Amino acid sequence: MSASVTSVAVAGASGRLGALICDVVENHPDFELSARLSSRSGADDGADAQIFIDVTTPESSPALVERAVRRGQRVLVGTSGWSAERLSDLEELVAEVDGAGVIVVPNFSLGSVLGTALAQIAAPYFDSIEVIEAHHQGKIDSPSGTAVRTAELMAGARAHAGREPIDAPFADQRARGELVAGIPVHSLRLAGVVARQEVRFGGAGEVLTVQHDTYSGESYVAGIRAGLEAVRDAAGLTVGLNRVLGLGAGL
Description:
Largest sheet: 6 strands, parallel
Number of domains: 2
Order of helices and strands: EHEEHEHEHEHEEEEHEH
CATH topology of the largest domain: Rossmann fold
Shape: globular
Radius of gyration: 18 Å
Strand order of the largest sheet: 2-1-3-4-5-11
């Protein structure tokens, strides 16, 4: 390996996103794929790589990320399940380890990032908001990390604007979805679907819908490349592809 080429280990390499990330790494002239890691890999497998990419499961991700941070690797996280509470714990870890750099990307799609940004802009203007997200049948976690992040950011936008929590009637009924930051989120797992997110805003006499559809893995390639290139020199904790792309803070 040339001194100018950065080595990369991918945990979750056999999954859909992991396989795509491996392809992006292998086709990038500045990076070399040094390890494809799975649930059968040992704790020290991939430890020599300069960059550790985690696209595993919400249950295993925190421990894998902590281990990589503590051994001095730059870390790119694409696993779902990184709620505000988990991110707070990760921020403390990153601050504790000298020189640590971690980027967490809930969704590598450029369109998804912009959809979340538009939803965040609209959130203070409507008191009725619900999120519907749909993914393929193989997606284990629900709600999706993107939906959780979108709900949290919309709630934050409302708080920043001095608005009250949204009106979510009958939220105690299971069919009303899971409340995330006070906003109902509904999850569908359907054959024939890759990924879709709708954020619906209800107002007097009108409904605004911000919808994003993913039709193939190609939509993630540009975001993966951007995250890969950014994490090599990352410092501290960065959350969101928008921050990587310079699209503004807090989205």
